[in-house]
Amino acid sequence: MAEAGWPLRDRSRRSASDSSTGTPVDTVSYLLTNSGGSIMARVRGFGELEASIMDRLWNRDPDADTTVRDIFDELNTERHIAYTTVMSTMDNLHGKGWLSRERDGKAYRYRPTLTREEHSARLMLEALSGGGRSEAVLSHFVAQIDAEESADLRAALRRLARKSRR
């Protein structure tokens, strides 16, 4: 996910809740794993295998459907995993609304219901909504991003401002 605008810096391990109060501290939690030599971040709501599957689906052509076999073949080169484990995980992701599917003979063809960027935006909105005072949350967020991310944020705000004037 680092390539999707979530730098891993010192945010690599955050508790999802304050241990004394149980109050959510941060909606986005990161778990660094080594997935075939590339660093991958896991976002709250996805288990390790779910995150790996979603990452692979998000890295494909957004209009392409993918079978369980496609994902299994990729995962099986990196670790020993059962086909049925991949199948049930993709079925669970479908049940949770993260994947849509279409029957193709005896198999299903899957595709993400949201892009990686749409998913990240949802997580950011969830963090903003449930993280206390919005102004303070945004101030802390902006203080943690680097110059390039700040420039991207300013450009996005300018685009939105132009759209709203129309």
Automatic annotation (TrEMBL):
GO terms for biological process: negative regulation of DNA-templated transcription. Residues 1-27 are annotated as: Disordered. InterPro entries: BlaI_family, WH-like_DNA-bd_sf, WH_DNA-bd_sf. Keywords: DNA-binding, Transcription, Transcription regulation. The keyword Transcription applies. Coiled coil: none annotated. GO terms for molecular function: DNA binding. Belongs to the BlaI transcriptional regulatory family. This is Transcriptional repressor, CopY family. It comes from Mycolicibacterium vanbaalenii (strain DSM 7251 / JCM 13017 / BCRC 16820 / KCTC 9966 / NRRL B-24157 / PYR-1).
